[in-house]
Amino acid sequence: MTVKKLKVLIVDREPYWLNFSKGVLKRAGYKVITAASHEELVTALQAGKPDLWLLGFAAIGEAERKLIGDVLQTSGDPHVLVLSTSLPLETVRDLFVLGAADVTNKPFAERELLRLIENHLQQDRIASSYREMKERGSNSG
Question: Which helix (H) or strand (E) holds 105?
């Protein structure tokens, strides 16, 4: 089965995690765009909206919450995964309320990153399939 080459935008100020994630995803066949700053993010978005966002943070403060909120409003869909160091449960809850599709902790191994993305994409395919079936059902009645 051939899958469309998905475009993933990785936003992370930590060079190690930015390069690690980029390498993992490129080897897995994803088209990868990276941004280590707000300016780079603006430039990256000029190339078009990504299929999936990976937002990496060392910690989540007000500036990061605003960025996540802005990204979710810009993207218009729940294809945002947040990667961070140990987060308090309240922060994780807040990220889901903002609209993040998933949240995971750094550090993570290559397999964990790919599994996170594949699980999200599988859930998205299931939801899309359900919506299509529901639309067909309402159009036939």
Answer: strand 102-105
pTM of the model: 0.77
Domain chopping of the chain, boundaries: 7-140
Task: Provide the token pair at 105.
Answer: 């902790």
- Please list, in sequence order, all residues whose beta carbon lies within 8 angstroms of the beta carbon of residue 105, skipping any fewer than 6 positions away: 83, 84, 85, 86, 87
Which option is the CATH number for 7-140: 3.40.50.2300, 3.30.2160.10, 3.10.310.10, 3.60.110.10? 3.40.50.2300
Alpha-carbon gap, residue 21 to 85, rounded angstroms: 15
Side chain identity at 55, as an amino acid letter? L
Between CA 131 and CA 95 the distance in angstroms is 25
Q: Write out pLDDT tens, residues 94-123.
A: 888 888 888 888 888 999 999 888 888 887
